[in-house]
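go over both lines:
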Amino acid sequence: MTNEPYVLVLYYSREGATAAMARQVARGVECVRGIEARLRTVPSLVAPETESEGGVLCATQDDLKGCAGLVLGSPTRFGNMAAPLKQFLDESSALWLQGSLIDRPAGVFTSTSSLHGGQESTLLSMMIPLIHHGMLMVGVPYSVPELRATQAGGTPYGASHWSTEAGDRPLDDNESAICRALGKRVAEWTLRSI
């Protein structure tokens, strides 16, 4: 690891779709010179002592404290973020008390099994604790051409993906491009704010 500032791409993924999105977001971050992507996950609540999930290191509160920007991802759970990610954020009270994340750019992404399964409400639910931390939200503008072309996932609130109820639909080209655009935008805004 270098001493370059980093955007923390932090996610929870049970079936792999959100992890695939996280990798695309990280690619977008890495398109910007002078900043790196730090890909981290949070453990399942079933085995919270796990130090990694699928080969990706589990985040610590120090990863969050040290980030210059953040992109947060979760599968949709009844129109809300998944409990493991919410628990990780609930544990960040000390950072909130210190004002550690104030004015740092942040974005959000989600995957859901049903096309109208609460993608936008999940994105909004992830924004709420970040706004409480004083972070600056970065969305996906309609100048990203794939946002107008997508037929499955993608919103101005953040990147999204429809995986189907069987979870067998991979990211399509538009969804992947929207993920990369989100990562790139957060990285660009991060560099402006340093």
About this structure: The CA atoms of residues 153 and 184 lie 18 Å apart. The mean pLDDT is 94.
